[in-house]
Amino acid sequence: MYFSAFPTTDFNGTTLLDITRKVNLSGLVKTSALAYMNYTVEEGEKPEDVAFYYYDDVQYAWLVLLANNIIDPYSSWPKEERDLDEYIKVHYASQAGTTGDAVLEWTKNATIGANIVHYQSHSNPDIKLNRASYLNSSDTEKAEFYPVRVYDNEFALNESRRQIVLVNKALLPTIKDQLKRVLND
Q1: Which of 2, 8, 82, 140 is the most buried (most CB within 10 A)?
Q2: Residues 149 and 85 in one domain
């Protein structure tokens, strides 16, 4: 459905879909309290699932992604627990100096400092210190912070991705019409 609105172009004598066009959702949907609704992605839900549950059509997965500025659903959509673990095993293997489940153990190990991403304030989670700032702090200041290790950081980041917005389904006809106009201008 999304790509059907894109114009075609000629490339070396072949007619191709011009997917180089970019659409800004704010141009299609006027910002108002009723234009969007909050949604929490459940474990294992994919954009297609959310589109089916809310819009009654998996073909609106593009709208779920676009409303949340997700360009790469493989890296920006919340992962299932096992997929998160696999991602961590691959992504942190060289830093951990090991492979497989040993990487997961390394990312959680509270007895080493190499797996600390930052130090976070107990009273204000928005206040974070890097390792150098933490080490240069007084003992009183250090007591206010706790280490956030690789696994906990990746888990928190993944969980934050679960909070998305959905465009009000009453706006679908307007969005479809405007999308065709924007892409073909």
Answers
A1: 2
A2: yes
What span, in angstroms and rounded, lies between the C-alpha atoms of 5 and 184? 8
- Give the count of beta carbons closer than 10 Å to the beta carbon of residue 169: 15
Instruction: Tell whether 7 and 32 lie within a shared domain.
Output: yes
Q: Which residues touch 110 (CB under 8 Å, ≥6 apart)?
A: 147, 149
Are 96 and 149 in contact by the 8 Å Cβ rule? The answer is no
- Rg for the chain, CA atoms, rounded: 22
Q: What residues make up the domain containing 36?
A: 3-76+162-183
Tokens 């906990």 found at: 152
CA distance 113 to 147: 9
Give residue 131's pLDDT: 94
Cα separation values, 53 from 40, 58, 73, 161, Å: 13, 8, 18, 19
Q: How confident is the model at residue 17 (pLDDT cuts 50, 70, 90)?
A: low
Total structural domains within the chain: 2
